[in-house]
Amino acid sequence: MADWAIITGASRGIGQALAVRFRQHGWGVMNLSRRPCPVPGVVNVGVDLAAPGWEAQVGQALRDSVGPPSGRLSLVHNAALYEHDDALSLTAEHFRRVLEVNVVVPAVLNRLVRERLTDGSSILYVGSTLSEKAVRGNASYVTSKHALVGLMRATCQDLVGTRVHTACICPGFTDTEMLHEHVGEDPAILEAVAKRTTFGRLIEPREIADVVWLCANTPVLNGAVLHANLGQIES
Ligand SMILES: NC(=O)c1ccc[n+]([C@@H]2O[C@H](COP(=O)([O-])OP(=O)(O)OC[C@H]3O[C@@H](n4cnc5c(N)ncnc54)[C@H](OP(=O)(O)O)[C@@H]3O)[C@@H](O)[C@H]2O)c1
What we know:
It is globular, with a radius of gyration of 17 Å. The protein is α/β, with parallel strands linked by helices. 40% of the residues lie in helices and 16% in strands. It has helices at residues 13-24, 54-66, 92-113, 139-158, 177-183, 187-194, 205-216, and strands spanning 4-8, 28-33, 43-46, 73-77, 122-126, 165-171, 224-228. It has 7 helices and 7 strands; from the N terminus they run βαββαβαβαβαααβ. The protein has a single domain, classed as NAD(P)-binding Rossmann-like Domain (Rossmann fold). Bound molecules: NADP nicotinamide-adenine-dinucleotide phosphate (NAP).
């Protein structure tokens, strides 16, 4: 009766912190990403979620490693692309690629695990503060993160009667490679970003993992959008 977490993008950042948290509590963890998750005991499925063919590979890995439905399953949609772009110059190819990884992949994964969603299971979406507001220069990301909230709310309605729950956890500025790649390594800029939380510091990935873990174990949060941003200062 093992409980399993299926996490996209656990090779680094928030996803890796999630793998640590679920493993600490004795859950089986399967990571879906191109690079492996270094956390001991994690089953790594090396997939590029932006390329064709991943669906069959994940289906096979679920049969081989997770086996028939038994304990709880938490599917955590964490992997995402965060690109600099703007709403007036998006190309179809670029926009489709971001939407594919950030929105289409979660929907397809929901279908792949559907038969394994036993009582107490959950489908958890990692959104962003940009799930409910926009900033300049991130049109594809903003659009995809808004879409995730819609997908989560639809998931909640379509799970009626299943005793499976869902939620969307929306991190603020979290100290991961994604943030560093996006804003760069200039200490002054990083400090300015940190000062945009009321605590004056970046969020640790494990703090977001704590919230996701809470959601996995708290069915009353079904349908909730949870902002985990350390009190972001609006400018
Ligand atoms: N960091 C923040 O400040 C922040 C703020 C708000 C929301 N978030 C959200 O939190 C989540 C995690 O963010 P993070 O900061 O931890 O990001 P990250 O450090 O960039 O990690 C992203 C993960 O997604 C995986 N991934 C990306 N493209 C993939 C692909 N084509 N196929 C398979 N896996 C892919 C990466 O794995 P591989 O490269 O190994 O494939 C990596 O493990 C994202 O949904 C992000 O939008 C983050």
